[in-house]
Design brief:
Layout (H helix, E strand, L loop, with lengths): L5 H13 L8 H8 L3 H17 L3 E6 L5 E6 L3 H15 L5 E2 L3 E2 L8 H14 L7 E5 L4 H11 L3 E4 L10 E7 L6 E7 L8 E9 L3 H11 L4 E11 L11 E10 L4 E6 L5
Parallel strand pairs: 5-6, 5-9, 9-10, 10-11
Antiparallel strand pairs: 1-2, 3-4, 7-8, 11-12
Length: 272
């Protein structure tokens, strides 16, 4: 790469780090990339580190030694998250979102790249210090959230299917009981999709009683995998109890009146 002016180098280095979160990058990579001395690269990284932290974009960690380098960990502050939550609540509380059975229509929100990325960054911030190998979700509406979260954690995504598909190869299937409808349903995961003894982060768009998430937890036992965390975009409190106790939610649905179309949404336990 041609030698750049310092201002241009700072911009390019910042972009390089943003697109490689949770990756250890040796200083020699930057030194060779920009044909610059390591001392100059270290000064540039100090500037970038200060801006990241001052603007609440994340943390830049420096690891000393021959195998050292820098690692960028995306973060979002609780203040910035609350501003995003205000928009989430405004959208969720629109009366025309009420569906039969007290459910909410959220597909349009999960199709907004900016909003989905913001939610993904919240989850990535919440679970940044966990030892993780993959992000898992169940088809279909949880997929955008899982990919957004995984992009900030720099992890692959594993998708659990409602039924086995020939394109997945041999698979493990289990029956589980829906926590809200009490119906027996099936979910499936291809054996090649997940290595045994993996550390898994489960992400889902909506949790009522938690039957689907519990089903994923049970499915992971077949792979001898460990659930390191559970993140839920919206949880409902209109159930006697949740089957899942240890989870993080962004928003909490506290009331839906099908007659008046009144919807009440408060901050989830992520903000507690």
């Amino acid at each position: 790469m041609k030698k750049l002016k310092r201002s241009a180098r700072l911009v390019e280095m910042t972009q390089y780090l943003l697109f490689r979160p949770h990756s250890l990058i040796p200083l020699t990579v930057f030194a060779e990339r920009y044909a610059s001395a390591k001392s100059s690269i270290s000064e540039d990284l100090a500037i970038i580190k200060e801006v990241f932290e001052d603007e609440g974009l994340g943390e830049l960690h420096t690891l000393a030694g021959a195998a050292g380098g820098v690692k960028f960990t995306p973060r979002i502050s609780k203040e910035a998250s609350l501003d995003i939550l205000s928009d989430i609540r405004r959208q969720l509380e629109q009366p025309d979102r009420v569906l039969p059975g007290g459910y909410l229509y959220m597909s349009d929100m999960l199709g907004q790249p900016g909003l989905v990325n913001d939610i993904g960054k919240m989850f990535a911030s919440a679970f940044a210090d966990k030892q993780l190998d993959v992000v898992m979700t169940v088809e279909t509406k949880g997929i955008p959230l899982a990919y957004a979260t995984a992009s900030f954690l720099n992890l692959p995504v594993v998708i659990v299917r409602r039924d086995n598909r020939v394109t997945e190869g041999s698979a493990v299937s289990i029956n589980y009981v829906s926590g809200s409808t009490k119906r027996i349903q099936t979910m499936s995961l291809g054996r090649r999709s997940l290595k045994e003894q993996s550390n898994v982060l489960i992400i889902d768009d909506f949790m009522r009683a938690g039957g689907t998430i519990q089903g994923m937890v049970d499915l992971l036992k077949e792979f001898h995998a460990t659930v390191q965390g559970v993140g839920v975009f919206v949880e409902s409190t209109e159930v006697d109890e949740h089957l899942i106790e240890d989870y993080i939610s962004i928003a909490k649905l506290t009331g839906v009146d099908p007659k008046t179309k009144q919807i009440s949404v408060v901050p989830g336990n992520y903000f507690a």
